[in-house]
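Sample entry copied in:
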Amino acid sequence: MPSATAVRFGDGGFGAEGFGAGGFGARVRGSRVRGSRAGAGRAGVRLGLRARWAALRALVGPRGGLLLDVAAVAVAALDVWLRVLPEAEGYSRLLSGVAVLAVVFRRRCPFLVVLLTIPGFLFGWSQLAAMIALGTLAWLRPRSAQTAIGAGLVWFARFFLWPVDEFLALPWTAHVHDAIYGGIVAGMPVAIGLLAHVRAELSARVRELAAGRERERALHARAVRADERARLAREMHDVVSHQVSLIAVQAGALRVTVRDPDAKQVAGNIRMLSTRTLNELRELVSVLRAADEPPQPGVADLPQLLLGTDVSLRVDGPVRDLPGPVSGAVYRTVQEALTNVRKHAEGASAAVVVVSDGERVRAEVRNGAPPDRGGAGLPSGCHGLVGLRERAALLHGRFHAGPTDDGGFVVRVDFPLDAGAGGVDGGVADGAADGSDPVGATGRG
C-alpha cells in the first residue's frame, strides 16, 4: 500500500510534482541565479547611464554654464508667454519681461536678480524666473541672510494676490492653501540649490582626497627610494670603500719599502688609482644620500680623468655646451673603456678622441695590442660594455665595440645633441664590426 506521502505528493516525494524532478532545491537555485542575473543587469544599466552622463558632460565641456543660462532664460520666458492674459495691464507685462531678462545675470549678482524677479512674480507671471533666481542664490550663498530674505520674498509673492481687494475677498481656506503652496514654491528651489552646493563641495573634497592620496603615494615612494639609496650608500661605504682603502694603504707601504724603480712606479700608480676610486666612491655615496643629485662629470672633466696617465686626448668642436646627459654619457664611456684597457691590455697605448660638429658628438677610445707579460688577467663581470650599450640606446645614440686589425680594441659612441630629453625608444646600438657580440668575443666588461 502506498504511503500517505506518496498519495499526496506522488512517488517523487515532497516537491516532485510541484517543483519537478530536481525538487525544492532546484527551484531555489534557479531563483538565485535569476536574481543574480537581474542584479547584474541593473548594475550594467547604472554603469551605462553613468557612462552616458560622463560622455554628455565631456561633449558639453566648458560651455555647459552658458547652455544652462540659455535654458533658464528660455524656460522663464516660456512660462510668462504661456500665462500672459490679453487684457493684462502694461506694467504687468513690463515687470515680467524685466524678471525674465534679469535671469541672465543670476550668477554674477544672485540676490539682486531675486529682487528684480519679485515684482514680476507679484504683479505678473514670472514665477519660474523667481524660482530659478532663488535656486541660484541658495546654490552660491547657501548659509546667508540673503537666501533667507529671498525665500521669504518668493513665499510672499506666491501667497499674496494682486489687487488687494481680491486678496482680502478670499476665504481663510484659500489663504491657508496659498501659504502652503508658497512654502513649496519657495522651499523647492532652496532645497535644489543646497543640494547642488553640497554636491559641489563633496566633489571638491573627493578631488582633494584623491590628490592627497596621490601625494601620499609619491611621498611613500620617495621614502622607499631614500631608504634604498641609504642602504646602498652604507654598503658601499662599509664594504667597497674599506677594501679600496686597504689597497691604497698597502700600495703606499709597498712604494716606501720597495727599492726597484719599476715596482715603485707600479705601487704609485696603484695608490693613485685607488685614491681616485675612493674619491669617486665618496661622490657616489653623497649622491645616494643627497635628495637632489649634484652635477655629474662631463667632457670638460676628461683631462682630470686622464691626469697621470700616458693616454692621449684630442677634443675638437664645441663640447662645452653639450647637454648634461650626453656629456655625462661620453665621460662614462671613456672612463669605462680606459678601465677595460687597464684590466685587459695593461701596458698598451691608448688614445681618446672626442669630436662635436654642433649636431652630434662622437667619442672614440682606441688601444693597441697589449704586451705579452704572461700574467693572468683581472676578473671581469662582463657588464661594462653592456651598460654602455644601454646608455647609448637611452640617448638615441650608436655604440660600437670590437677588436681591431692590429690586435687592439676600439670603443666608439655617437650621440645626437638633442638627446638630452630622449627616451628609451629609438636608440640604436651596433655590434662589433664582424657582427659578433663584443663583450662575449673579447671578454671585456
Observations:
- The two ends are 97 Å apart (CA to CA).
